[in-house]
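Q: Trace token order:
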Amino acid sequence: MAKLFDDFKKFKNRIALIDGKKNITFKKLIIIFDQLSNILKKRSLILILCNNSLGSIISYLFCLYSNHVVILIDKKISDYELKKLVSLYKPNYIVSNESGIIKNVKKKIFKFNIFDSNLYSINSKKIQLKSNLQLLLPTSGSMSSAKFVRLSKNNLYRNTKSIIKYLKLNKKDVAITNMPFFYSYMLSIINTHLHVGGSIVISKDSIIQKKFWDVYSKNKITSFNGVPYVYELLFKIGINKILKKNLRYVTQAGGKLDETLKLRLWKIFEKKNIDFFVMYGQTEASPRISYIKNNDLILKKGSIGKPIDGVKIFLKDYKNQKILTPYLEGNIHCIGKNVMLGYSKNLRDLNNCKNSEELNTGDIGFFDKDKYFFIRSRAKRICKIYGIRLDLEDLEKRLLEYGIKIISVSNDKKIGIFYNPSKKVSLKKIKEKVEKITNQHSDIFLFTKLKNIPRTANQKIDYNSLKKKL
């Protein structure tokens, strides 16, 4: 069976990764992989505490190339959450570029240095891992939940090949890490570019920093990618920063982009003959499901487009029957080889993985007479802020563990936290706990005192009413 990165040996002296003054060729990657394979002689479960660094990314590439199972976690994870994950999943190895992060992990033994990161052995026991399992990604952005999306080798390979096809990627393409690499959108950019022999420029800097744009210009980036917030920032700091002569195409995913902003971007890119793709997906789909590009963005305003190659999108009504009539709303489902193996909550789930191939996205929408799909609303209480997906229901439950009762809503630009004033629970404490659970700064939250929770006629919480207060 074909898998990701099969052709690495063919690319030889082509540059795979660029990090400052370090250029890592595909040949050098293979040498590093061989060194690691001499240490990891049996298929293992490896937890990587990630950031946009050479060591993190090479460790990830090694796991896929050498058929190990990898868990990707934001390195901002708290000591408590890390210990909980280690207890639940019992990984054989941990990769980290900060020894302080894993100081409380017992029985760690240094094994190998991978540039700015170290490989530690923490569990020598053989773990039963399903043969098709490859990657575990968190379901709720950086909320450090123990629940993961399980992706197979074939999931990743099929989705990668489909993305390469519609973006027409080739070995001359160069992308830059302007999003966290453990985020499924950024991960798919890394997978697709390297699979065809292209290059990834590694940057830890924000797009508001001059250093980022110096690196961007120097390395002749051909593809720029971003979540809605990235493009909002670009209009504030200067959209011309990305419009270099080497830029071939631009993509947007990770949430709904404002239609006015989308129109402005389309006009700019059309004048420069730059392709503009707006994409829809979910981590559970490895992650791309559909896309729409160029003129269709205007002709089919608000559409998520048509499914990518190898994927079928369809609607089901409340009776779970397929909807065959245009403009009737229903739950959006998709079928494809890119759909996950299901979720995991602990180590036992890693030896019991079956392809469902059908995914209920949790979004409600319709299709038009030309079979373009549109989203009306979300069935689940999931929001995307700056491309990071947060489960609001999970956030409320986690806060209750600290004795904090809140109601949360989102308009995909801000998350509203509504709380009842109390002597026991101060606003300062609420902010601290929200930041700890989500690993996000409190600036993306709007904290509002609310004595009475608005309710609908059937006494359910009136979330629409609360959204109007954002």
User: Anything to note?
Assistant: The CA atoms of residues 395 and 401 lie 10 Å apart. The radius of gyration is 22 Å.
